[in-house]
């Protein structure tokens, strides 16, 4: 299976990709369970905190039903570390030649982050057809993705960055959106307060809207 097929298989039933940053080790499993109770099957754990890598390992071991991506991967050392940790896929905020080449060689698929048509082309010429768009809201939101559909008709995107519940309906009407990503379903304050019910409520609100996707 090539990388695009692997990503399409991983994301076949996925419309919402929570982007989580772990501040305390003890939060990892309850947070994942709260998301799962809200209909989440796939999430992205960022390497923005020291707990990112151990969180990926723990989730792969203790919650095998979840699909766990590694996010904010910015260099070769991190790429290798998340492969070893068992991540199902890798997400980067932007592209470098090094990251794109690593993605081609890896056994797990890469969703490279882009912000411009030129960056899409840099990946496209190497065979990439699925990208993260970051930071989506600042770049123009759904209007940007509609514009990309013209020149890049076989490309699909996962917009993230500044997206909230109020925005996802419009994204999900677009044929070139594979899933919508973001952290609005995992507010820092709710995690700090261990308010797992709130995480489940926000996830349910998003996944139930996404279910209506036609
Ligand atoms: C990401 O890396 O995908 C974003 O930081 C998530 O964006 P958000 O926190 O603005 O939702």
UniProtKB/TrEMBL annotation:
<keyword id="KW-0119">Carbohydrate metabolism</keyword>
<dbReference type="InterPro" id="IPR031337">
    <property type="entry name" value="KDPG/KHG_AS_1"/>
</dbReference>
<protein>
    <recommendedName>
        <fullName>2-dehydro-3-deoxy-phosphogluconate aldolase</fullName>
        <ecNumber>4.1.2.14</ecNumber>
    </recommendedName>
</protein>
<dbReference type="Pfam" id="PF01081">
    <property type="entry name" value="Aldolase"/>
</dbReference>
<comment type="pathway">
    <text>Carbohydrate acid metabolism; 2-dehydro-3-deoxy-D-gluconate degradation; D-glyceraldehyde 3-phosphate and pyruvate from 2-dehydro-3-deoxy-D-gluconate: step 2/2.</text>
</comment>
<comment type="subunit">
    <text>Homotrimer.</text>
</comment>
<dbReference type="InterPro" id="IPR000887">
    <property type="entry name" value="Aldlse_KDPG_KHG"/>
</dbReference>
<keyword id="KW-0456">Lyase</keyword>
<dbReference type="InterPro" id="IPR013785">
    <property type="entry name" value="Aldolase_TIM"/>
</dbReference>
<comment type="similarity">
    <text>Belongs to the KHG/KDPG aldolase family.</text>
</comment>
């Amino acid at each position: 299976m090539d990388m695009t097929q692997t990503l399409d298989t991983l994301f076949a039933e996925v419309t919402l990709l929570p982007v989580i940053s772990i501040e305390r080790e003890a939060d990892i499993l309850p947070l994942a369970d709260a998301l799962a109770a809200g209909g989440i099957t796939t999430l992205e754990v960022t390497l923005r905190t020291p707990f990112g890598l151990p969180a990926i390992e723990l989730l792969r071991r203790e919650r095998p039903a979840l699909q766990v991506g590694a996010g904010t991967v910015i260099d070769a050392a991190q790429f290798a570390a998340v492969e070893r940790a068992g991540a199902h896929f890798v997400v980067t905020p932007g592209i470098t030649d090094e990251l794109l080449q690593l993605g081609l060689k890896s056994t797990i698929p890469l969703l490279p982050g882009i912000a411009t048509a030129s960056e899409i082309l840099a990946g496209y010429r190497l065979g990439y057809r699925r990208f993260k768009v970051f930071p989506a809201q600042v770049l123009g939101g759904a209007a940007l993705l509609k514009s990309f559909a013209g020149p890049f008709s076989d490309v699909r995107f996962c917009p993230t960055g500044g997206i909230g519940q109020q925005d996802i309906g419009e994204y999900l009407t677009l044929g070139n959106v594979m899933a919508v990503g973001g952290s609005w379903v995992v507010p820092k304050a709710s995690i700090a307060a261990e308010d797992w019910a709130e995480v489940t409520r926000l996830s349910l609100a998003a996944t139930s809207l996404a279910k209506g996707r036609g």
